[in-house]
């Protein structure tokens, strides 16, 4: 088992020249490197600088940890599987890898859901924001964001609930050919789609829809007040700060949906269509999803001044100076 001696596998490998394989390894290695470096900078920045120790940033810290682990524990093995069309690491590790992949991918969208709730209270109910989104609340969010995907993913794969009703088909089309992929029958596939993607994504879309219209109404009200009392700058700055943060996190959500929508929709439709999606396309959609973990730090760098200032201090080694943790990254 998992020896990749099947004729079809050998023919599939021969279709890709050594140059194509080298190019794919290079491209995927760059994606992995960007994921690791970008998210590590986020983790170091929020951990080191005391000014960044806020509820929202701890959620960002936790999500960056999810993305970092995805780049560290999952992507390298997926890279070999994608390029070689074969799984060389054994049956047990295949289950561990698949479970970890599902867990971390699901944990990302769970965190984004909680971040959207955080932004909702910051923009729409600022007077009660600190009371509602406190350290305990954030701790519970992070705990749920890690534990629920972990229990779901490892329980589903190790108990083989995902293969219920299609065990023979899986062993014939995937396992015996030396493959390793997240294979689902109809009901488990729908359950995974709803739990890992549809429900949390729907929550995010609804929350940001509410944020957009409430923030728009607040902006009109504030602008009208500013024209009357002549205190435009005083009122505009805090509102702009929260609105900009909500916009940034909204872009993060949009990037996530663009990256992961194709994979999840193909995953849930595949068993109902008789599994017509080839492994190569499935791997390509998986790597499109992985790109989200590399894009998130780029969103921070583009929209958050504190991230750019922290990045400069890390690159030039200023974080090793005395009291650097108390540096002011923003006013």
TrEMBL record:
Domain of life: Eukaryota
Membrane topology: Multi-pass membrane protein
Residues that span the membrane, as ranges: 22-46, 58-79, 133-159, 191-211, 245-265, 285-307
Pfam families: 7tm_1 (PF00001)
Compartments (UniProt record): Cell membrane; Endoplasmic reticulum membrane
InterPro entries: GPCR_Rhodpsn, GPCR_Rhodpsn_7TM, TAAR, TAAR1, TAAR_fam
Gene Ontology annotations for the cellular component aspect, listed alphabetically: endoplasmic reticulum membrane; plasma membrane
Gene3D superfamilies named in the record: Rhodopsin 7-helix transmembrane proteins
BP term (GO), one: adenylate cyclase-inhibiting G protein-coupled receptor signaling pathway
Keyword vocabulary terms for this entry: Cell membrane, Disulfide bond, Endoplasmic reticulum, G-protein coupled receptor, Glycoprotein, Membrane, Receptor, Transducer, Transmembrane, Transmembrane helix
Chief location: membrane
Residue ranges constituting the G-protein coupled receptors family 1 profile domain according to the UniProt record: 38-300
Molecular function via GO: trace-amine receptor activity
Family stated for the protein in its record: Belongs to the G-protein coupled receptor 1 family.
PANTHER family given in the database record: HISTAMINE RECEPTOR-RELATED G-PROTEIN COUPLED RECEPTOR, TRACE AMINE-ASSOCIATED RECEPTOR 1
The protein, known as: Trace amine-associated receptor 1
Protein species of origin: Peromyscus maniculatus bairdii
């Amino acid at each position: 088992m998992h020896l990749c001696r099947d004729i079809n596998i050998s023919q599939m490998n021969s279709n890709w020249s050594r140059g194509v394989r080298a190019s794919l390894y290079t491209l995927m290695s760059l994606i992995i490197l960007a994921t690791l470096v970008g998210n590590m900078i986020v983790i170091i920045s929020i951990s080191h600088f005391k000014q960044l120790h806020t509820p929202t940033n701890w959620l960002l810290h936790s999500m960056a940890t999810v993305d970092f682990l995805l780049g560290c524990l999952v992507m390298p093995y997926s890279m070999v599987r994608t390029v070689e069309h074969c799984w060389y690491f054994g049956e047990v590790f295949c289950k561990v890898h698949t479970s970890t992949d599902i867990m971390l991918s699901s944990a990302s969208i769970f965190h984004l859901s909680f971040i959207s709730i955080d932004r909702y209270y910051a923009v729409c109910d600022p007077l009660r924001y600190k009371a509602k989104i406190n350290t305990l609340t954030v701790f519970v969010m992070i705990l749920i964001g890690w534990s629920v995907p972990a229990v779901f993913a490892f329980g589903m794969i190790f108990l083989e609930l995902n293969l219920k009703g299609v065990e023979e088909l899986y062993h014939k089309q995937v396992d015996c050919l030396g493959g390793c992929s997240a294979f689902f029958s109809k009901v488990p596939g729908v359950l995974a789609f709803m739990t890992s993607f549809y429900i949390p994504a729907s929550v995010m879309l609804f929350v940001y829809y509410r944020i957009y219209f409430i923030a728009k109404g607040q902006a009109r009200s504030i602008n009208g007040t500013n024209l009357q009392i002549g205190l435009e700058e005083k009122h505009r700055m805090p509102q702009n700060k929260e609105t900009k943060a909500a916009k940034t996190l909204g872009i993060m959500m949009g990037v996530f949906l663009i990256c992961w929508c194709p994979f999840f929709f193909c995953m849930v439709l595949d068993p109902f269509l008789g599994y017509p999606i080839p492994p190569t396309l499935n791997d390509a959609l998986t790597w499109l999803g992985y790109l989200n973990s590399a894009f998130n730090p780029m969103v921070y760098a583009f929209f958050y001044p504190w991230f750019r200032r922290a990045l400069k201090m890390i690159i030039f080694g200023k974080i090793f100076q005395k009291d650097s943790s108390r540096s002011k990254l923003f006013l």
